[in-house]
Amino acid sequence: MTGAVIEQRTPTIGEALRRIRQEAATYNGVWSWLATVDHKRIGLMYGATAFVFFLIGGVEALIIRLQLARPESSFVDADAYNRLFTMHGTTMIFLVIMPLAVAFFNLLVPLMIGARDVAFPRLNAFSYWLFLSGGLLMTASFFTGNPGGSIFDGKLGAPDGGWFGYAPLTLNQFSAGTGIDYWAFGLLILGIASMAGGFNFVVTIINMRAPGMTMFKMPLFVWMTLVTSFLIIFAMPVITVALFQLLFDRLFGGVFFSVAAGGTPLLWQHMFWLFGHPEVYILILPAMGIVSEILPTFSRKPLFGYPFIVFSGIAIAFMSWGVWAHHMYTTGLGTTANAAFGISTILIAVPTGIKIFNWLGTMWGGSIRINTPMLFALGFIAMFTIGGLTGMLHSMVPSDFQQQDTYFVVAHLHQVLIGGALFGLFGGIYYWFPKFSGKLLNEKWGQLHFWTMFIGFNVTFQPMMILGLLGMPRRISSYSDGMGWGLWNMMATAGAFLIAFSIVVFMVNVVISLRSKEKAGADPWDGRTLEWAIPSPPPAYNFAEIPQVKALDDFWHTKYVESETGVPVPVVAGGAYGDDHDSGEGLGIHLPSPSILPLIAALGPAIMAAGFIYYDNPWLLPLIPVGVVITLVGVFGWALEPATE
To answer: Among residues 326, 321, 361, which one has the least CA distance to residue 341?
Structure first.
């Protein structure tokens, strides 16, 4: 008897989906989150963690504003004030706005390009756990960093050199204790996390787009993710080198920034701002991408001038490398350098202006719906435009000489990063919340959130512009009664508490909406891009069948055709890619298995950092080899672990 021939059969999609459901059911509870490599869960963890840090940074801001509300206040002392404003700036930039953008990258990019996950799912998980460990390391400095005590006896230990870390103020003789060490090591770990994410998204976008999705059929948000990822890849090494130099000066007697030993503090400024100005666009470009998705949906029109917005984003990223020294006009670079950087700063406003006019063109003649996401998008345009105009004042050297160290600069920075980036990010939260929760955020609570935040923002930061013009210096913890600054500072403090109230409204809205029994449906906004074609929340595999893309806004074209007058006419049968059906022939769906090893690998760098911070303590010095071993175990185990079990 000859051997039986075993027939090889390609599993149906229905069989593959049932297998995935069975596998997913074996991972539940806390373990399923610790070991997850699903881009959607990682995006949710990024967003939730960043929001917690946002609350911490907000409390720091409120304490700062309480201190400055009245002349000669003693709510906190000067030392605590320095540490609070250092950690407030660091937290908001590196632990809030940037990771919130990465949360959107994780949640949306695979869905928008028709992929089932990112290119390297475990690297994605590693990036998140590194971000968490770096953020916790920096925050721990509150409790450990002050040689005179800790937060429990009223002495904060956080870094006190400003979020910009200017040398030589960050050297040992001016900043004793370990606060700056925590800050520098925390930023190094966050930089590694950002680089891992940047490479991952570049590879994902270039290699994993759905069939037919050419580069110029990608949603605008995906384009801004790609541009931002390249900026991260090239900008982070610059600050990494600067931080290593600072740590060598502090821990091992290096002389990079010591004037007495032949070093130069200007080296730090050049390296920090060579990173820092591309970083501004790392923070703002994702919000621009979000606004570019919201406006067409709520105007019921295609994005006006799509290629111009794409190329203006690329131009902004390219030109951002040529403007860093406009932060340094008062350092004595000379008239030639000042003039060159002044011209480059003026020129970078051109692609930004192109975006704004194209956004206005998108709304022009559209059938506009004023829902909460649209309100935040409009608030972004208005506030970011004001921030850009105030920035142009700093491009002019004589004007900047007068404003450089005043509250006008503080107002400009917040006008761009809060009025710009944060408004855009909140618009994205309201827009995509139903996709990942299955519930719509309450519209009345959402509009209350917007208006209280919008009014509070302007009541906070417009008085700061006046304070700057009146000559109030930034980075001071108190001021005398006769300066005439008290009224404006009290207004700014009142506005800050109104912003805090708006965040409470947002949190109440989230809780009420999640507890609601009303379902949002797969496409509540009548969206244009592929993520709206699949169920809400999306299944683990995203798409039962990978879509075939034929046009920009391809999902929109499956639902509508245009009449002779250009009015959208619904297709009778409708059209969607993502019915979660259990029939149909096709290839099996392969998803990566959960793994705890990225978490283990991410623990090592923070442990090593603690060993270096306390390298003169024989009991803590062994943390360095322990951290190395943990990292190697995680990385080698990860490398040898099968991708799919």
So the answer is: 326
Grouping H, G, I as helix, E, B as strand and the rest as coil, residue 493 is helix
Q: Produce one character per residue of 422-444: b if its CB has 16 or more CB atoms within 10 Å, e if not.
A: bbbbbbbbbbbbbbbbbbbbbee
Tokens for 81? 């004030």
Whether residue 252 lies inside any domain: the answer is yes
Per the structure, the count of domains in the chain is 1
What letter represents residue 123's amino acid? Answer: L
- 169/165 Cα distance (integer angstroms): 7
Q: Which of 77, 245, 67, 81 is nearest to 171 (CA)?
A: 245
Q: Could you tell me the two tokens for 519?
A: 């379902």
Amino acid found at 413: L
Residues 6+ apart with CB under 8 A from 506: 426, 445, 449
Number of DSSP helices (H) and strands (E) in the chain, helices first = 21, 2
Could you report the per-residue pLDDT of 371-394, keeping only the tens digit for each?
Answer: 999 999 999 999 999 988 888 888
Q: What is the CATH number of the domain that holds 558?
A: 1.20.210.10
Q: How many Å is the Cα radius of gyration of the chain?
A: 26
Task: Supply φ then ψ for residue 568, to 5 degrees.
Answer: -65, 130
pLDDT average, residue stretch 300-321: 94
Write out the residue range of the structural domain in which residue 219 sits: 37-640
Quote the mean pLDDT of the chain. Answer: 89
Neighbours of 500 (CB within 10 A): 19
Mapping DSSP onto H, E and C, the string for 381-407 reads HHHHHHHHHHHHHHHCHHHHHHHCCEH
Q: What is the Cα–Cα distance from 313 to 309, expressed in whole angstroms?
A: 6
Q: Which amino acid would we find at residue 156?
A: L
Strand partners, 568: 562
Cβ-contact 184, 248 below 8 angstroms? no
For residue 578, pLDDT beyond 50: no
CA distances for 506 relative to 158, 257, 287, 429, angstroms: 29, 45, 19, 10
H or E element: which one contains 334?
Answer: none
> Under a CB-based contact definition with an 8 Å cutoff, are residues 645 and 592 in contact?
no
Q: How far apart are CA 184 and CA 170, in angstroms?
A: 10
What is the reported pTM? 0.92
Cα–Cα nearest to 431, from 337, 532, 330, 502 = 532
Q: Is 513 part of any domain?
A: yes
Give the separation between CA 182 and CA 504, rounded to whole angstroms: 31
Q: Which of 264, 402, 269, 400 is nearest to 329 (CA)?
A: 400
Question: What are the angstrom distances between the C-alpha of 603 and each of 31, 59, 471?
Answer: 17, 28, 47
Residue 12 is assigned to a structural domain of this protein: no
* Nearest to 305, CA basis, from 250, 231, 355, 247: 355
Contacts of 293 (CB under 8 A, 6+ apart): 219, 220, 221, 428, 431, 528, 529
**Sequence-ordered list of residues with C-beta below 8 angstroms from that of 307, at least 6 positions apart, any chain:** 216
Q: What DSSP assignment string belongs to 79-119?
A: HHHHHHHHHHHHIIIIIIIHHHHHHHHHHHHHHHTT-SS-S
Tokens of 248: 């060598």
pLDDT at 13 over 70: no
- The dihedral region occupied by 474, where left means phi > 0, alpha psi between -120 and 50, and beta the remainder, is beta
Reference 249, options 158, 139, 169; nearest CA is: 169
* Predicted local distance difference test score (pLDDT) of residue 232: 96
In a domain, 618, yes or no: yes
Bridge partners of 585, per DSSP, are 12
How buried is residue 555: exposed, middle or buried, by Cβ count under 10 Å (0-12/13-18/19+)? Answer: buried
Phi and psi at residue 47, to the nearest 5°:
-65, -45
